[in-house]
TrEMBL record, chain A:
Domain Transglutaminase-like, chain residue ranges per copy: 157-221
InterPro entries per record: Bac_transglu_N, Papain-like_cys_pep_sf, Transglutaminase-like
Name the UniProt record assigns to this protein: Transglutaminase family protein
One Pfam family linked to the record: Transglut_core
Automatic annotation (TrEMBL), chain B:
Coiled-coil residues: none
PANTHER family named in the record: BLR5612 PROTEIN (PTHR34595), SLL1039 PROTEIN (PTHR34595:SF7)
Protein name stated in the entry: Alpha-E domain-containing protein
Pfam families tied to this protein: Alpha-E
Organism: Histidinibacterium aquaticum
InterPro entries: ATP-dep_Glu-Cys_Ligase-2, DUF403
Domain of life of the native organism: Bacteria
Domain annotation DUF403: ranges: 1-309
């Protein structure tokens, strides 16, 4: 199956930017589940400085924002061919060692509520327990757009009992690591049946299971990723896999808009 | 050269120049005070105004006394233009640009700082004042000597010189403005002779008494003072002299870097306008107004230098 | 210059015996050791009052040239002078040869270890260093995973801290693989000695140290990224004039003839890290940074850092700049890793370590913890990740109360501590009002690493505890320095 994806991020600032840098993690990589046909990033109001692969093997582009600009637009688009692998990505490849993914980050530190979710997990095998975890979080934490804040931690979302895919994923990471699984955050896209235009990029989790390697879990949709999922970037939590992160001097009064279309060709 | 280094050099020499000017003003104040007949501390008010920071002084003291005024000018940490503050700032900047300075210049600067810091560790009594001012003058002169004697004539030197002459032009203009404005009696028509004490106070504070006498004799008239302090091209503290030096050093930079700059153009316009000025025109225009406009222009040049040579960003 | 050296007593199986320390001039007794014979001859012919005057003169020179360090913790950073003692510490050519072979071996092992840790982690797979040493180690920098710096050099400038306990007994006390300081004192001390006592140097052949800045510049240049050209642009990054080692940063930049920059002078321009000059932005090939990892890049590390350069790690990963020392080298000089150095040296060089480690008990191992708790009053206990002598216990010098308190800390978090015996540090005479008097010393040789060469400056920085009997050589606590001579062949 071939998808055409377009992802435009636009910032408008009340005050002009004096200096700014943004790291973009927008270009997917080919693997057994996906083959990138072509991809490109365009920037207006800024300029691409360099690119490299980070320690999660994400492709990173660094852009600088033009001095005195009040509008920055980042356009990422491309075509990708997908294969069905039932969410199995396979063995760990680095460069970061597998054990690093056991590390608890401030956003994925489990608290009482996360531990309670873990206790509810039943089943014997590793895979079964992870699927169980996925289901339990999905039931306990309602998917509700606008209910959470971007800065919420896993525990905060678990306590609130609601959130978006980012929160679901953080809770899953907190619990899976607490259960002893290396786990990571995945940001990417999902082809929907009923629409082309989407409000936001998607996010899900991957846990490392002996014998299988990395396996995906989409808590929000209560399933493992299938042929409709496009992996773009991974990290220990949202902060490391986010499509756009940066630092700016000036540029007060920021307004952000995101346009994403995902369609089959 | 780093923009930050140019900035440090510029402020190193500006601060050093400022310390000297402030010390010179304190010296002038003391001399006038000793040669006048009345017992009031009137002249210290105008000295403080010329030295800048009048508002700061009044906020802390409320009234003008000789002792407080001297202490404010020499030692006060609240006064950014006090000798001690200025020397500290000069030395701090020298530390920042240490790699651009010769060892001799750095040691002279560091030695100046240590000597002045020790001399100003306590309030300076009336008896010790001449010796203390002498020390400040000789220590700063040593730094200047080491600069002239050991520094290469390159961009480093140019930025030092630009800082020196911008500060000096600013200082001479302010002294002329404040002192003249205050001291010249309203009734004294332009062209009449001035009272000795008054003219001495002006010339003394820019170390120009001897020079003036050499050029204009012992007759002191407003035209001649203005001629001497603004227009004379030989007098090293005159506005004309300072402006031509600023322009000269900016031109060296332009040639050295092969980059034409706005600041060099501005300095050229300013220098040629001062050079072409006639004394009578200044009086027709109004001396105070002329100086205010000059102070604006010189500050503009300073700001443009900061931009052209990327002092901050 | 922020570290304390312990020791002074020789502890053996819990029995403390005070011994006369080995004196590098007089050995264990009164017979003058060979390396000092020419010096002794000169000294005997000198008038002490002239030497005293010279000592004062030296301090005046230091004050005037601004060789000071800043002291923190006061409202205004104060600049202080590190006392200088005019009696040199003398090492024979043979002693030095053996030492430098050991140092070179150790430094090569450190770099091989760093490369391994940030790539395949073979040493962990081989079971020679436990995985836990990395997992729980704050000095492990994940951002370095998969990075091989130009030439494979991670730690370009290394300081190996050595102590001596006997004629032929040297121990490595600590490796400094991040940003070792003190080299400016080594250079200034020699310069001062040359100026004050030129006649001494015409009697004795002393190996020069003055090439250090040139060697440093060459060594850094040799580590420039591919495509940097014949004459790579090098700069020194300092946290600024209030940093305690600012003098050294300025000194080294000056001596190398390169720019001394601060974070706000730098910016990512055209994919490179560039410095703001009066003529525009100029790209840098090699940055000798004296800013800690955490503050290096607010975009990738501590976002509150005002000292660093946003995006420098991105440029680094993209291969656009060499950072010396590489970020993440702290994993190699961590005190817990230190205890594995004999294994590390052997694993990567295939040889036994030439330089000995001080025996170290790792308190995370139950047997060791038991031993340490049983012998606490004879041991020095250090925090694994601490530096600057903070949070450490010097058993023989501690009160009962301090021992009891520390025992609690140890029991609560044993993994946080290591312990070492108190060694009997060697002494070297200093010049006092009453003539020569022995004082304890340590030694920090400075090592430069480039892809094709390990360069060790003969000598290094000798720090001396100026108080009688004291073992604290730390400059902030009354320590001084000496010129260190390595004699010619």
């Amino acid at each position: 199956m071939r998808l055409q994806i377009s992802h435009t991020t636009r910032y408008v600032f009340d005050e002009p930017i004096r200096h700014g840098l943004e790291q973009l993690r927008l270009v997917p990589k080919s693997n057994r589940a996906q083959n990138v046909i072509q991809w490109q990033t365009g920037v207006s109001g800024g300029k691409k400085e360099l690119e490299y692969d980070d320690y999660h093997n994400n492709h990173v582009e660094l852009i600088s924002i033009d001095r005195n600009t009040t509008e920055l637009t980042i356009m990422s688009q491309g075509q990708i061919e997908l294969e069905e692998t039932h969410g199995v990505i396979g063995p760990h490849r680095g460069p970061a060692p597998l054990w690093l993914y056991e590390k608890v980050t401030p956003r994925t530190k489990p608290g009482k509520e996360c531990r309670a979710l873990i206790r509810a997990v039943e089943g014997e095998g590793e895979l079964e327990r992870l699927h169980g975890l996925c289901r339990i979080i999905n039931e306990a934490v309602a998917y509700e757009v606008g209910a959470s804040h971007a800065g919420w931690t896993a525990e905060e979302a678990a306590v609130a009992g609601k959130g978006v895919c980012q929160d679901h994923t953080h809770i899953f990471l907190a619990c899976a690591r607490e259960m002893g699984f290396p786990a990571r955050y995945v940001s990417g896209y999902l082809l929907l049946d009923d629409r082309i235009e989407q409000d936001a990029a998607h996010a899900w989790a991957e846990a490392h299971v002996d014998g299988l390697g990395w396996v995906g879990f989409d808590v929000s949709n209560r399933q493992s990723p299938d042929i409709r999922y496009v992996r773009v970037a991974t990290g220990l939590d949202y902060g490391e896999a986010a499509p756009v992160t940066g630092t700016r001097v000036g540029g007060d009064g920021e307004r952000l808009s995101v346009d994403i279309t995902v369609q089959q060709q | 050269m780093l923009g930050k280094t140019a900035n440090g050099l510029y402020w190193l020499s500006r601060s050093l120049e400022r310390a000297e000017n402030t010390a010179r003003l304190a010296d002038a104040g003391q001399r006038i005070a000793l040669t006048r007949l009345s017992g009031a501390d009137d002249e210290w008010g105008s000295i403080l105004q010329a030295a800048g920071g009048w508002d700061g002084y009044m906020a802390g003291h409320g009234e003008v006394t000789r002792d407080d005024a001297i202490d404010w000018m020499l030692r006060s940490p609240d006064n950014p233009s006090s000798v001690l503050s200025s020397i500290k700032s000069a030395r701090q900047n020298a530390r920042m640009v240490r790699t651009a300075l010769t060892e001799e210049m750095w040691e002279a600067m560091n030695g100046c700082y240590m000597a002045v810091r020790d001399a100003l560790a306590r309030k300076v009594g009336e008896r010790d004042l001449p010796e203390c001012l002498q020390l400040i003058r000789s220590r700063t002169a040593l730094v200047r000597g080491a600069t002239h004697g050991t520094m290469l004539r390159n961009d480093i030197y140019d930025f030092l010189r630009i800082g020196t002459f911008l500060e000096r032009a600013d200082s001479t203009a302010r002294i002329l403005d404040v002192k003249y404005y205050i001291l010249l009696p309203a009734a004294a028509a332009v062209g009449s002779d001035l009272d000795n004490v008054q003219w001495e106070s002006i010339l003394e504070s820019v170390s120009a008494r001897g020079g003036y006498r050499m050029v204009h004799g012992s007759r002191v008239r407003p035209q001649e003072i203005v001629q001497f302090l603004i227009l004379d091209k030989r007098m090293p503290r005159s506005l004309n002299f300072c402006c031509s030096k600023i322009h000269e050093n900016l031109r060296y930079l332009v040639n050295d870097y092969g980059q034409q700059t706005e600041s060099a153009d501005m300095a050229e316009r300013l220098a040629s306008s001062v050079r072409a000025q006639e004394v009578d025109d200044i009086f027709d225009y109004g001396l105070h107004e002329y100086i205010q406009s000059f102070l604006g222009s010189i500050a503009d040049v300073g700001r443009q230098v900061e931009v052209d040579y990327r002092f901050y960003e | 210059m922020q570290r304390i050296v312990f020791a002074g007593f020789r502890g053996k199986a819990g029995v403390m015996t005070e011994t006369t320390p080995f004196d590098e001039m007089w050995g264990k007794g009164d017979s003058l050791r060979g390396p000092y014979s020419a010096f002794q001859e000169w000294f005997d012919g000198e008038d002490h009052s002239r030497l005293r005057a010279k000592q004062r003169e030296a301090e005046d020179v230091f004050r005037l040239t601004g060789i000071t360090f800043n002291v923190y913790g006061r409202s205004e950073a104060e600049e202080r002078l590190i006392p200088f003692d005019i009696i040199p510490r003398i090492i024979s050519a043979q002693e030095w040869q053996r030492l430098s072979r050991g140092i070179e071996q150790r430094v090569r092992a450190l770099n091989a270890f760093l490369h391994d840790i940030y790539n395949r982690q073979e040493i962990v797979k081989a079971g020679r260093v436990p995985l836990d040493m990395l997992k729980r180690n704050a000095a492990f920098l994940p951002q370095m995973c998969g990075v091989t710096p130009p030439g494979g050099v991670y730690t370009h400038i290394v300081g190996i801290d050595l102590v001596r306990t006997g004629d032929d007994e040297f121990f490595v006390l600590e490796d400094n693989a991040r940003t070792p300081s003190g080299v400016s004192y080594m250079l200034e001390n020699r310069e001062t000695m040359l100026q004050m006592f030129p006649e001494l140097f015409s009697r004795t052949r002393v190996q020069p140290v003055q090439n250090y800045p040139r060697d440093l510049r060459r060594s850094l240049g040799a580590c420039a990224p591919i495509g940097a050209g014949e004459d790579p642009t090098v700069a020194v990054l300092t946290p600024g004039i209030y940093n305690s080692a600012y003098f050294e940063h300025a000194f080294l930049a000056d001596q190398m003839g390169v720019e001394l920059v601060e974070g706000h002078d730098l910016q990512v321009v055209d994919g490179r890290v560039a410095m703001r000059t009066t003529q525009g932005y100029q790209p840098i090939d090699v940055l000798y940074r004296r800013v800690d990892d955490d503050f290096l890049d607010p975009l990738n590390f501590n976002p509150d850092s005002a000292l660093g350069v946003p995006g420098i790690m991105d440029v680094y990963r993209a291969g656009g700049i060499t950072i010396a020392n590489a970020p993440g080298t702290g994993i190699a000089d961590d005190k817990a890793i230190y205890s594995y150095m004999p294994e590390i040296v052997e694993f990567y060089t295939g040889e036994k370590a030439i330089l000995q480690n001080v025996p170290t008990w790792r308190c995370n191992e139950p047997d060791s913890l038991k031993y340490v708790l049983d012998n606490l009053k004879d041991l020095v206990v250090k925090e694994v990740h601490g530096s600057g002598g903070y949070g450490m216990l010097i058993g023989p010098a501690a009160s009962r109360k301090e021992l009891a308190e520390f025992r609690k800390k140890l029991e609560a978090r044993p993994g946080n501590y290591i312990a070492q015996p108190t060694l009997s540090l060697s002494t070297v005479p200093i010049f006092t009002r009453k003539g020569l008097a022995p004082r304890h010393v340590d030694l920090r040789p400075f090592v430069l690493v480039s892809p094709d060469k390990v360069n060790i400056t003969p000598g290094g920085l000798t720090r001396v505890a100026l108080k009688k009997g004291s073992l604290v050589v730390n400059s902030s606590q009354g320590g001084g320095t000496k010129d260190t001579w390595v004699l010619g062949d």
